[in-house]
Amino acid sequence: MPDDPKIHETVLEVVFPGHPNQLVHVTQSPFLIGRGNEAGNHLQLDDRRISRNCAALIAEESGYRIEDRGHRLGIFVNGKKVARKFLQNGDVIQFGIEDGCEIIFRSSGAENVIENMLTRLGSMPSLTGAQHPGDLSQLNLLLEATSLLHSQLPLDSVLAAMLDHTIAVTQADRGLLIEPGAADSFKVRLARGKGGEELAPESITPSQTALSQAMERQASFISEDLNLADIDLKSAKSVVVQRLRSIIAIPLYAMPRANSDESVVLKRGQLLGILYLDSRRPAAFSDLDRQILDALGMQSASILDNARLVERERERQRLEQELSIARTIQQALLPQGLHDFPHLAITGMHYPCHEVGGDYFDAFAAGEERTAFLIADVSGKGLGAALLTTMLQGALSAMALGTEPVSVFNHINKFLCEHGGVRRYATMFFALIDRGGKLEYIKAGHPSPLLLRRGQVSELYSEGSFPVGLLENAEFTAASLQLEPDDTLVLFSDGISEAENPDEELYGVSRLREALAGQQNTPLDLLKQIVLDSVEAFARGASQSDDMTLLIARYRAPAKAESSTA
Predict the structure, then answer these.
(1) pLDDT in tens, 399-432
(2) Which among 47, 84, 35 has a CA at the least distance from the CA of 63?
(3) Which of 211, 266, 388, 464 is the most exposed place for a label (fewest CB within 10 A)?
(4) Domains and CATH numbers, the chain
(5) How far is CA 467 from the centre of its chain?
(6) Burial of 307 (0-12, 13-18, 19+ CB in 10 A)
(7) Torsion on CA atoms 114, 78, 263, 108, rounded to nearest 10
(8) 3-class DSSP string for 125-190
(9) How many CB atoms are closer than 10 A to CB 270?
(10) What is the separation of C-alpha 344 from the centre of its chain, rounded to a whole number of angstroms?
(11) 534-545: pLDDT as tens digits
């Protein structure tokens, strides 16, 4: 039902820990949610703990219903496990994962409530009679303010316009937007006077007594004549000093959220702030204003909530742009078109699963007689991992000047451990090969490269080792091996060996060995493609959650140095 109007009013706010929130518009019904795209998911969640067939949103006459489509950990709404449930604006959808993704269901139904309420108010006799000629103009102002729900202006501009409309509707002298502070305190974020006058927030002291009473009631507080108010409010210092006679304080809450106990229909959401209005005139707020207080509070909360969503979306777009720049820089730092060396043919590729990746590979001359090549995989993903790969590249480039590799590894390990705030480590494999085929290598927690010799495939080493940056007292040493002509080393990251298929099976090293077996004479670029085709055929379109990096090096004896690339 793609033409259902509810579809165009519904947005999902996707919250991933450590990432900017993302707004996703519901475009059709059913709207499928899950990992990867092979199940036809409209919202694809990048978390291997989430099932590929996970959940669906179904549009019905009474609203949207979420339905569990087979998520192995279950679907939860506001902390309660459900098989299917109708959603209320602000409901939080979870997937049984403590540190995983959450989805906040948002509908623009609140705006319709405001407009319906104003329509009912406009039909009241007191609003259409000749004795209240200004009443309809006040309603028009309120309706104009409703357009701010869709405004693309900066947040402060939206809030200022909201206050100006509110002052015009209520005919108050001043309007304040007050935000919750630390330890149950309040602070004035924005202050406006009549006619759009901008007031300094620090120059105005709202009545703390009025604010406290509004918070205690969790409802609008209004006093039309403070001379008739209770003694605590009438004698309050801020009231006396500012000669106030009328006050309104309206708590603004985020959109109501359904309670997990279905016998309780709604509960209040997060406190966004307080809308505060005052005047030095008694009875400044008319009966009309009292009638529209609920609409005014709902509208103001909607504007504030919507403006913050827009601000978050702009922040997400800004971060995406910065990530795109970081990706361009990272790709530029990777070897651009690996070239062969006199005694070494080499090829490789790197496919990050996000905008920027944590894998890194390189090959470079280390003096006249030796060539260095390496692969690294930084723990974690995203920008933090990419920054560390850049640092590693700078440190390892010193080996091109003849620096001893073991001392470089020990130095990097000590540096990372001493800077505990980094909280990342890296698995690495580094190798030096000379013209005679002597291979010296350092292993640092990385999966063993595969050695393809005379059609047989074996692992270069089987014993474990420590990543750099994990243990401060770790000492790295070099091992050596004599290569034979046409020996081929295949270096890979765990994005290759741990690639998944739709059944959540891992590709594994054994399948990689099968793909390489008997390929001793295969040109390297074709061998690389054989590996990638094997992984792709196994994955069957399943999306991957880790970077995929492959580096293939083949030793060429000096006698073959003048021949074409193998």
Answers:
(1) 766 678 898 899 888 888 887 666 788 899 999 9
(2) 84
(3) 464
(4) 5-107 (2.60.200.20), 109-313 (3.30.450.40), 334-560 (3.60.40.10)
(5) 28
(6) buried
(7) 20
(8) HHHHCCCCCCHHHHHHHHHHHHHHHHCCCCHHHHHHHHHHHHHHHHCCCEEEEEEECHHHCEEEEE
(9) 12
(10) 43
(11) 999 999 888 777
- Phi and psi angles of residue 453, each rounded to the nearest 5 degrees, phi first: -130, 120
Cα-Cα-Cα-Cα torsion 268, 273, 278, 282, nearest 10 degrees, comes to 10
Is the Cβ–Cβ distance between 443 and 405 less than 8 Å? no
Average pLDDT, the chain: 77
Beta bridge partners, 433, equal 371, 439
Backbone angles phi, psi at 366, to 5 degrees: -120, 70
Which tokens hold the place of 406?
Answer: 């073991």
194's tokens: 């009549």
User: Across residues 179-189, what is the average pLDDT?
Assistant: 79
Q: Is the dihedral of CA 127, 133, 138, 139 positive or negative?
A: positive
**Residue 320 token pair:** 């995406």
pTM for the whole thing?
0.52
CB atoms < 10 A from the CB of 92, how many? 17
Residue 146 has pLDDT above 90, yes or no: no
- Tokens 């292993």 locate to 443
The H helix count followed by the E strand count for the chain is 15, 27
Q: CA-to-CA distance for 302 and 110, rounded, in angstroms?
A: 7
Contact 95, 54 (CB under 8 A): yes
What percent of the chain lies above the pLDDT cut of 70?
A: 72
94 near 5, Cβ under 8 Å? Answer: no
d(CA 55, CA 30): 10
Helix, strand or coil, per DSSP, at residue 83: coil
Cα 397 from chain centre = 33
3-class secondary-structure state, position 509: helix
* C-alpha pair distances (Å), 280 with each of 168, 227, 246, 275, 285: 16, 11, 6, 17, 11
The residue type at 380: G
What pLDDT score does 564 carry? 40
pLDDT of residue 202: 84
Secondary structure class of 330 (helix, strand, coil): helix
Angle at CA 401, nearest 5°, toward 399 and 405? 25
Instruction: Report whether 297 contacts 251 (CB < 8 A).
Output: yes
Secondary structure class of 564 (helix, strand, coil): coil
**Do residues 190 and 272 make contact, with C-beta atoms less than 8 angstroms apart?**
no
- Whether 323 and 353 have beta carbons less than 8 Å apart is answered as no
The tokens describing 332, both together, are: 């530029």
Q: Are 407 and 398 in contact (CB under 8 A)?
A: no
Secondary structure class of 563 (helix, strand, coil)? coil
Distance CA 412, CA 401 (A): 17
Q: Which residues contact 234 (CB under 8 A, 6 or more apart)?
A: 226, 227
Contact indicator for 333, 390 with CB cutoff of 8 Å? yes
Q: Residues 284, 226: contact at Cβ < 8 Å?
A: no
297 CB neighbour count, 10 Å cutoff: 20
CA dihedral (77, 103, 70, 511) positive or negative: negative
Radius of gyration of the chain (CA): 33
